[in-house]
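STRUCTURE:
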């Protein structure tokens, strides 16, 4: 699982060619990724870049939940 928080919208990131094009929003975007492709590829430029078999997610049912709390000052 991977979690990140950005001061930019997904649309702003997709439409920006360089980081100096990014404009901070008035709010934060929280990204919670359900699945990852894996880690441990042999290289980064060929078909071997796929994750090594032991690090791949199996084709099974995965489930998780989370709760977010925001404290106001």
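SEQUENCE:
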């Amino acid at each position: 699982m991977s979690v990140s928080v950005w001061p930019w919208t997904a649309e702003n990131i997709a439409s920006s060619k360089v980081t100096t094009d990014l404009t901070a929003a008035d709010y934060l975007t929280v990204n919670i990724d359900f699945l990852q492709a894996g880690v441990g590829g042999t290289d980064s430029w060929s078909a071997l870049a796929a994750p090594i078999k032991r690090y791949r997610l199996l084709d099974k049912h995965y489930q998780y939940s989370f709760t977010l709390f925001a404290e106001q000052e």
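REMARK: The chain is about 10% helix and 15% strand.
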